[in-house]
Amino acid sequence: MSFELTLQFLGNSTIGLFGAGHLGKAIAEGLLKAGLPRQNLAICHRGSKETDRELADLGLSDLVESGEKVVRQSRILFYLVRPQNSQAVRDYKLREDSLFISFLAGIPLNNLPVHLPDAQRVRVMTSAPDTLRNHNGIAALYPQGNLLMREILDSLGLRIVPLGHESDIHAFTALGPCLPIVLTYWEYAGFNTDDHELLETAKKFGISNYSGILQWAHSIRPRQLSPEEINRYLFQAATPGGVTDAILSAMRAGMCLSAALQRGIERSQQLATA
Ligand SMILES: NC(=O)c1ccc[n+]([C@@H]2O[C@H](COP(=O)([O-])OP(=O)(O)OC[C@H]3O[C@@H](n4cnc5c(N)ncnc54)[C@H](OP(=O)(O)O)[C@@H]3O)[C@@H](O)[C@H]2O)c1
User: Fold this and answer.
1) Which CATH number applies to 4-162?
2) Measured in angstroms, how far is the CA atom of residue 190 from the centroid of ligand 1?
3) Hey, which of 89, 111, 229, 238 has its CA 20 to 30 A from 81?
4) 8 A C-beta contact, residue 106 and residue 267
5) What is the SS3 assignment for 178?
6) Which residues line ligand 1 (CB under 6 A)?
7) Where are the domains of the chain?
């Protein structure tokens, strides 16, 4: 694993993380652990004290800069705010030579206030922060052919799942990255998982080769967690107002697994039009 292409592209600029919540922090740790030189990473967030404290605990405070500085010095910008804050980058001027990578659930690239050519705008949908820390995650990449992002996702230990269209990310998000969390909650609540039901749901939403994703979710999801550990696990993975959150709420309201997952897909589609 290497950052050869990435470092060539960056020169003495940085990968900027715009947002340092659950996902941003896990990505920062993952990039450094994979060997990205520290001088090639910069982080900004909205300024919450809690995030400052968490970044300090992780030994990342020295990488924190103002949003303006991070955007100016970054040739690769990872957008890591909540979907509800999708317009946050509007106030900043991106470099014309930069590559913009959105990690936001739901929101299509065209709905973000970023005026770069198509070839410089990329979307990634990754599994939860714990999978980044454990190097056993999956991610969708759109467009798939972006070699720089392939190299970076490889370095983070993320297996890339091919998708044909950007709109396939709606179903992929609920039925892929969210699935380990959803299954963990489902079985914790005392229900058994019916793989056949999940395979049928994936078929209905046009996700091919789903058995590999299903196997992945079963194999990486944590087991035998205490109630506190379950809460911590759900907290890091469920962005409030996001897709996992919608699925968990639907399950808590008594929906069956496939109907709750469908709720998640609908939530992603709803975010796209908000
Ligand atoms: N968590 C997951 O499992 C997961 C998985 C796949 C995709 N995603 C996507 O990743 C994104 C982030 O999720 P998350 O769970 O990490 O959310 P989060 O924990 O709420 O973090 C959001 C971050 O955005 C920052 N932010 C908000 N407005 C900003 C602004 N104007 N300028 C700079 N920073 C700003 C916040 O700053 P403060 O800390 O200062 O408030 C915070 O650090 C979401 O769009 C989500 O759909 C998440």
Assistant:
1) 3.40.50.720
2) 31
3) 229
4) yes
5) coil
6) 18-24, 44-48, 51, 67, 80-83, 85, 88, 103-105, 126, 128-129, 177, 237, 239, 242
7) 4-162, 169-273
